[in-house]
Design a protein that fits this description.
Low-confidence stretches: none
Number of helices: 8
Radius of gyration: 17 Å
Distance between the termini: 22 Å
Subcellular location: Cytoplasm
InterPro entries: Adenylat/UMP-CMP_kin, Adenylat_kinase_CS, P-loop_NTPase
Largest sheet: 5 strands, parallel
Strand content: 5-15%
GO molecular function: AMP kinase activity; ATP binding
CATH superfamily: P-loop containing nucleotide triphosphate hydrolases
CATH architecture: 3-Layer(aba) Sandwich
Number of domains: 1
EC number: 2.7.4.3
Protein name: adenylate kinase
Length: 195
């Protein structure tokens, strides 16, 4: 039995490369639709702060520079969804799944995804945006070579994720203005919420 009824509470995966503007669009979606925004990064940081036994284990993994195991990330997502299932109008899962196996595990242990919104932009656009962000934020990992490598890794994994759900993907041209991108988003979400 899935922990939530997705006919009443849609689950939306929001995917897009670094610099695709999905953070901005997530904020607009939350403001308009009141969806619950779950970012795996936020969930992990909150868990680490909680000081639980799991937090000690996670801290050790991150300090070694390793990736947190998929099953831990999935448990955190599942717990967050169950905790909010009663009052949530929908779930916005941000930047997850990052790889094919994560998508399969999510659907098996939580619920099928309702729709996948993919913010698509060319590598050139993403690189320019990230370089612009680096100039203002001074983030050390935002130099051109690192950015190109991050984008390449993202795109390789993302293509495998998308290939699994041809009928659930809605591609959005993320090269457009913020408002015109949000118009495209609303065309996808309005019918889900009306149902």
């Amino acid at each position: 039995m899935a922990p939530i009824d997705t006919s009443k509470t849609p689950i939306v995966w929001v995917l897009g490369g670094p610099g695709s503007g999905k953070g901005t669009q997530c904020e607009k979606i939350i403001a308009k639709y009141g969806f619950t925004h779950l970012s795996t990064g936020d969930l992990l940081r909150a868990e680490v702060k909680s000081g639980s036994d799991r937090a000690k284990c996670l801290t050790a993994i991150m300090e070694r520079g390793e990736l947190v195991p998929n099953d831990v990330v999935l448990d955190l997502l599942k717990e967050a969804i169950i905790a909010r299932a009663g009052e949530s109008k929908g779930f916005l899962i941000d930047g997850y799944p990052r790889e094919k196996s994560q998508g399969i595990a999510f659907e098996k242990s939580i619920a099928p995804v309702t729709v996948i919104i993919y913010f698509e932009a060319s590598t050139d656009t993403l690189t320019k945006r990230l370089l612009g962000r680096a100039a203002s934020s001074g983030r050390a990992d935002d130099n051109e070579d690192t950015i190109k490598l991050r984008l390449k890794t993202f795109l390789q994994n993302n293509d495998l994720v998308l290939a699994q759900y041809p009928e659930k993907i809605k591609r959005i041209n993320a090269e457009d203005s913020v408002d015109s991108i949000f118009n495209q988003v609303q065309q996808i979400l309005d019918p889900l919420v009306a149902a």
